[in-house]
Amino acid sequence: MNQQREFPDWEQLYQNQQVESMPWFNPDLDPDLDQALTRLNLHTGAALDLGTGPGTQAMALAQRGFKVTATDISDTAVSQAQEKAQEKGLNIDFRQDDILNSNLDKTFDFVFDRGCFHVLLPAHRQDYVSTVAGLIKPGGYLLLKCFSQLETRESGPYRFTPAQIQEIFSSRFNVISTEETVYHGTLDPLPRALFCVLETS
């Protein structure tokens, strides 16, 4: 389950491949995020889209009225997403940033991550937890989508069980819920995923 996994050079990937063909490309707001925002009564405030990639989730959140910051480790991903957001007339603070060595200097009502955490090496997970917890306002949320242990494809991100999410995040977060779902993108069938709602403790 947690054998060493191989990942691409993200900058090279975004330079060489059309974002619409990437497995995680989803032009619409993630349905699980949409439901969580409703359940948590989150309609305004500051949001961080962590590992924004194509920027579609950041744009969908901005269209909802959130004040959005969107980061990615790839300069090319950020510049391409920023260009598309500007074409739509959306004001999003796009930044190149590595969450394991972050330069972010603000806090957020919630952080949405549907692609960053589950590609980090196991040794880096607690650094991620500490950094992300520090970026969220007291009583704010991390809304996390990651691959589930139930996903059977050989390749792709690390997989997790609800118990592992509890173990990894419990030092800084209260785990409100972990639900089995699917990862919306271009793969068929859609990969199995967990959607986790975590509140800063």
Could you walk me through the main structural features you see in this protein, from its secondary elements to its overall organization?
By secondary structure, the protein is an alpha/beta fold. The chain has a single domain (26-200), classed as Vaccinia Virus protein VP39 (Rossmann fold, 3-Layer(aba) Sandwich), CATH 3.40.50. Helices cover 28% and strands 27% of the residues. Strands 1, 2, 3, 4, 5, 6, 7 and 8 form an 8-stranded mixed sheet that branches. Helix 5 (125-135) links the parallel strand 4 (108-113) and strand 5. The two termini are 29 Å apart. 40% of the residues are buried. The mean pLDDT is 96.
Brief write-up:
With about 200 residues, the chain is α/β, with parallel strands linked by helices. It has helices spanning about 10-15, 30-40, 55-65, 75-85, 125-135, 160-170; strands at about 45-50, 65-70, 95, 110-115, 135-150, 160, 175-180, 190-200. The model has no long low-confidence stretch (mean pLDDT about 95).
Bin the helical content.
25-40%
Number of strands: 8
The level-1 CATH class: Alpha Beta
What is the alpha-carbon Rg in Å? 16 Å
> Can you write the helix and strand succession as a string?
HHEHEHEEHEEHEE
- pLDDT averaged residue by residue: 96
What is the H level of CATH, i.e. the homologous superfamily? Vaccinia Virus protein VP39
CATH T-level fold name: Rossmann fold
Distance between the termini: 29 Å
Unreliable stretches (pLDDT < 50, length at least 5) are none
Strand proportion: 25-35%
Structural class: alpha/beta
Largest sheet: 8 strands, mixed
